[in-house]
Amino acid sequence: MDEAVNNAGTEGQPGLITAQTAESYASTFDTNVLSTLLSMKHEMKVMLQQGSGSIINLSATMGAKAAPGASVFTTSNHAVEGLTKAAALEGATHGVRVNAMAPGPVDTGMLTRFTGTDDRKAALISGVPMKRMGLPEEIAQAIVFLGSDKSPFLTGQIIAVDGGKLV
């Protein structure tokens, strides 16, 4: 079975809604949403024709819970999750599963850029019940599971891998 992972993403321009521009919106949505849509378009064509496949889109916990100063990033993640659910319905009767992985704070350059300072990063991590950041390999392990034949009845789901942040 084929597996596709759509993992393009940017935090965009952090800031209040009043600081956002058409350009900051378009840049974030082109990277986070349009790239996912166009990738899924071509992945789905192949998978629908062969009658099997698994697509995993990357979102973030902000697809379920907003944060001040992250309006465009939050909205783009909501859009990715909506695309995931719609595509899951389109593929379900054809053997194609579509899910999304929504990581919480993960130790990456994107998190460092998004938080901006060590104090803000520490404050964000303090809101994680496990009191730590996730590791990229922990997200990868969850993606491998979602794409494998060990999850044959999962489709249209948004799986939070977030140390309990959304609980």
> Span from first to last CA?
33 Å
Secondary-structure element series: EHEHEHHHE
**What is the name of the CATH architecture?**
3-Layer(aba) Sandwich
Oligomer: single chain
Strand order of the largest sheet: 1-2-3-4
Low-confidence parts lasting 5 or more residues at pLDDT below 50? none
Our count of helices gives 5
Overall structural class, as computed from helix and strand content, comes to alpha/beta
The Cα radius of gyration reads: 16 Å
Question: Main sheet?
Answer: 4 strands, parallel
Estimated share of beta-strand residues: 5-15%
Number of strands: 4
- What's the helical proportion of residues? 40-55%
Mean pLDDT: 94
How many domains, in number, for the residues?
1
The coarse silhouette is globular
The CATH superfamily is identified as NAD(P)-binding Rossmann-like Domain
- Assign the CATH class: Alpha Beta
Q: Kindly report the CATH topology.
A: Rossmann fold
Notes on the structure:
This protein is α/β, with parallel strands linked by helices and 167 residues long. The protein has a single domain, classed as NAD(P)-binding Rossmann-like Domain (Rossmann fold). Helix content is 47%, strand content 13%. The protein has five helices and four strands, in the order βαβαβαααβ. It has helices spanning 22-50, 71-91, 109-115, 118-126, 136-147; strands at residues 3-6, 53-58, 96-103, 158-161. The protein has a four-stranded parallel beta sheet with strand order 1-2-3-4, sandwiched between helices. α1 (22-50) runs parallel beside α2 (71-91). The longest helix has 29 residues, at 22-50. It is globular. The model has no long low-confidence stretch (mean pLDDT 94).
